[in-house]
Amino acid sequence: MLSFGDPSPYTERIRAAGTALIIQVTDLEEARRAVDLGADVIVAQGTESGGHGARRGRSTLPFVPVVVDLAGPVPVLAAGGIADGRGVAAALALGAAGALIGTRFQATTEALVDPSTSRAIVEGRGEDTERNRVLDIARSSRWPSKYTARTLGHRYLDQWRGREAELAADPEARQNYRRDVEQGNIPALPMWAGEAVDLITDLPSAADLVATLAAQAEDALDRAGGR
Ligand SMILES: Cc1cc2nc3c(=O)[nH]c(=O)nc-3n(C[C@H](O)[C@H](O)[C@H](O)COP(=O)(O)O)c2cc1C
């Protein structure tokens, strides 16, 4: 799955390996390019999503159906803000073939995250999440400015919000960040989480979660169909 940037240099190698080419897109230009490159699956990502995405991106609800129309026969997955079966049902109602879910799976027993991250996701609220570049700059991660990441709140975010250029030009601040990580004063990584954290209140196994999502989606679709 290729996201964030020009996928074209990699598509041939993926095809040659005989694997499906999945391209995640954040705007219509990227969606058109994904179609032109012959993607087998297109993921339409809205800005509600946890982790990286477009700074000037689109919201999932209006973005997914436009990508569905544009993609024609290519299956589209909706991504961003989906954490329960109602969200999966909404994705299907928008014409998507399914959903790509990220944040929700960080609160499952198999997730390779620090337990404090799973706990923070279970306890977090959508309002506590924020798209920002501050934490990428603070940890000297070279993400292009076009892409921000939605994270839970963080001390450095409060300290540097709106002063990104200043932070980028301040090696001492970035050194302090590294030291704070080493000393355990702040988490080793930003806690990437999307707006749907309110809907995440337990820590099931991933297999149980998938079964629950499917059952809830069926219920939601039945309800919407008046059955
Ligand atoms: C912890 C975390 C790590 C992620 N890492 C990547 C990544 O490496 N590449 C990528 O294309 N998307 C990544 N994403 C974004 C997902 O592909 C997806 O768009 C997003 O999780 C969907 O929104 P949701 O978090 O609201 O479910 C990540 C998301 C999270 C939460």
Could you describe the 3D structure shown?
- The protein has 227 residues and is α/β, with parallel strands linked by helices.
- The protein folds into 2 domains: 8-107 and 204-224, Aldolase class I (TIM Barrel); 115-195, no CATH class.
- The chain has 10 helices and 7 strands.
- The strands form 2 sheets. Strands 1-2-4-5 form a 4-stranded parallel beta sheet. It has a 3-stranded antiparallel beta sheet with strand order 3-7-6.
- α2 (28-36) links the parallel β1 (22-25) and β2.
- α2 (28-36) runs parallel beside α3 and α4 (85-93) crosses α10 (206-224).
- The longest helix is centred in the C-terminal third of the chain and has 19 residues, at 206-224.
- The termini are far apart.
- The model has no long low-confidence stretch (mean pLDDT 96).
- Residues 3, 24, 45, 48-52, 79-82, 100-104, 106, 192, 194, 196 line the site of flavin mononucleotide.
